[in-house]
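Report of the visiting student (M.T.), summer placement. My assignment was to run the structure pipeline on a short list of targets and document each run. The first record concerns Late embryogenesis abundant protein LEA-2 subgroup domain-containing protein.
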Amino acid sequence: MGIEEGNYKEQKVLTWCKRFSIRRFASIVGIVFIGGCYYFGLLWLMQASFREEPVQIPKIELASLDFTVLNITDTRLSAKWDVSIRIPSYLPGRYICLQGDLQASFMYKDVTLATSSPQKYNNLKYRDAQVLKVSAGVSGEGIYGLIGKDITEDMKEKKEVRFGTRFYITDCRENTTGTMRYACDEVTLRFEPDSGMKAAFFGNNPSCVLLT
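After the run finished, the structure tokens were exported:
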């Protein structure tokens, strides 16, 4: 009984030692793993803090565009354009000045038909999405020649006409002066059935991209 009891105690001690070793080894592995995660996480955060932010392309969206014919003949017409642009929240203050000038040009088949005079604005709010409006017109000599004829034919036959738009707005980017120039996708304007003298665009709002 004495020898068997001694062997039992010895086996019990060995078992306890093995369990202790396994627990100790597991604890060490856990500590090393947690320390490694902390180290590499800290390293990643340091690298991320020094990494440059991706450049955000300052886009503007065409909110509305109305084309109104004031007078028309077979080869000549006078008209005006009323346009609204939607400025996203990240532009005011960072790219576009909160106070400045807005100017727009309207094109047909890459030919500029009208350019508005610079119109002042002073109501932009920092980091807030807003809408700016500008108008331009052609009267007197009006739109004549082949361009005037083509637009007149579009109005009568297709009941729609396509125009391109350009914007010029005061630049407030760091180390820059002057204006930011935007080009908008060409948009189709559809004439109202009743009058046939006023057209507005339909479908998705076109994007306007910054010209380099």
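Residues 15 and 130 are 75 Å apart (CA to CA). Helices lie at 2-50, 145-158. I thank the supervising group for their guidance throughout the placement.
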